[in-house]
Amino acid sequence: MTSDATIHDYLKKYFGFDTFKGNQEGIIKNVLEGRDTFVLMPTGGGKSLCYQLPAVMKSGTAIVISPLIALMKNQVDAMRNFSTDDDVAHFLNSSLTKSESTRVKKDVLSGKAKLLYVAPESLTKEENIDFLKNVEISFYAIDEAHCISEWGHDFRPEYRRIRPIIDTIGRSPIIALTATATPKVQHDIQKNLGILEADIFKSSFNRPNLYYEVKSKQDVTKEIIKYIKNNPGKSGIIYCLSRKKTEEMAEVLKVNGIRALPYHAGMDSATRTANQDKFLMEEADIIVATIAFGMGIDKPDIRFVIHYDIPKSLEGYYQETGRAGRDGGEGNCIAYYSYNDIMKLEKFMQGKPIAEQEIGKQLLLETVSYAESSVCRRKLLLHYFGEEYPKDNCEACDNCLHPKAQFEGSEFVVNVLETILAVREKFKADHIANILAGKVTSAIKSYKHHKLEQFGIGDEKDEKFWNMVIRQALIAKFLVKDIENYGLLKVTQKGLDFIEKPYSFMLAEDHDYSDTTDEENAFGARTAAVDEELFSILKDLRKKISKQKDLPPFVIFQDPSLEDMAIQYPITLDELQNISGVGAGKAQRYGKEFVEIIKKYVDEKEIIRPLDMVVKSVVNKSGIKVYIIQSIDMKRPLEDIADAKGLEMDELISEIEAIVNSGTRINLDYYINMAIDEDRQHDIYSYFREEAESDSLQAAIAELGNEFEEDEIRLMRIKFLSEMGN
Length: 726
Description:
This protein has about 725 residues and is an alpha/beta fold. Helix content is about 50%, strand content about 10%.
């Protein structure tokens, strides 16, 4: 039995700490005594020390099974820094050359190496199994153990083969560690590893210094830029679901003067590692990443984690937000949510096996519950991980700081509980909600549930409302969800007592995110009132220039562009290019007088410009536009261009209009001369030159319509705007 004094000596000597955190000491003693151990410790709690310290103290080598190569390298480097001896820790994975792996094996066999990190894939290789049979193994540590469970947020099939391989090599004590596991996942891990008798050490999942907020998904890019600019110099991570979005987001932030870098699995590993290092070394403030980033990132001062897209599971969300404020300081966790995103995620699942789809759907539903609920977010998260949060107000989430009005809900809860019993506890939440709301679905018909006396008993409310009641009854433990059976609802003893003797139970309506739009639509929405005085000054200026240049006013700038200027107050040509319908060409040609007059106006009126509104957009590198411009330069027929890109003619003309409206000059004469008779060209052109009051297509068709095709009018309008305006 190792004395406490010895453990503390090693802690000080190797790791430089005087005291242990949380459960660390108990876990380490358990491992030193050779007992199987299960450790559930949230991110930032000091999991690594739980196997590093006993490995240094015990004879033999500890085998650490870990899923990420980058993580192994970090941990080995850290371990070597603690020790004077570089041989103390090694890793064995596919990134090593033949000679490097021979050297590692030599060090391990000589007994110098106290820790050997192995990827589960490397563990299955015959040569490695044979090698490990000759090693004195002190214990096995399985890090990120949630990867074993199909119910975890990061399932890896190769993790399920760990136990048979351990048996082949030779059994030693096992310590399994994870930062996130629901009770279901925990049981799954222990069962699969054959350590159901293990001693369990569970730390609280509560991170009191983290603030949680869920926002409606509108104008997200603008909001994120505003947030970062209001928090200068702070480190943050922005999570996106797709690689494409990750790259776009990082690019937009850069253009707006923010030191941001992308990180995702599709990048070559050298760039990825370089970007991660720049973030750790504070050469970049922001990393925009897919979930590939962050496992084992030991940066203590990440001040915010923003989810551009809501994650696929609450475990994923908890793990990712857990990277904020590990030093106990400020940590803001902001997620943007739109129900449309959930529908997209469900579509992604359609190709997968049915069982996997079912699991995926349930995990998604938990995320929806979290996002839409108006209950304390901390309470919800901790309940999900099987922990009770005693306080009614955590004072560090949007729902607690801005609570929704509550109402008496005991009658609604009784209705829910009785309906679940009436269908013999064999159905999921959605089905129960539909029965109560009186909604006839095919499932309700086939089970004849429209004949139940509970059917439609709550039809004054919709199924969304009843889903909310079910969620709050789950948190209050009147119900449990039988996850083994796809989330069927069961009434607990507490629920049965409640039916017998109801007491006051307050409910709060959910948030409604159904009207949120995707960013693309929201971006064009009017986000502020037009400054009418400035708008009329700009119209006068436009009129003056149009007289000087002998051009219709709309050729210079269209009304929506002037309106946008009267909202955003651009005072440089750079800023002017962010105004809708103004490209580089237009800004150069006509912009100078406009920005000068706006600057003078802003100074005189002492206007505080909404700088956060002026989001510089990345130059549209969309391949299709470049392709169209190049093809027109090569004088290719429009029909061929449309065919090559799978566009209808109508869509191609719209693309060309967008190119011209943003100030790029295009010469379609080669095509127009072939397709439209010269006299007809003249008639349409002079209409735009002399009669038109705006570039409106509707007005042109009304004036010219009977004798001209719409496509002819559109092509001539492109020619006119390109020649006159650009």
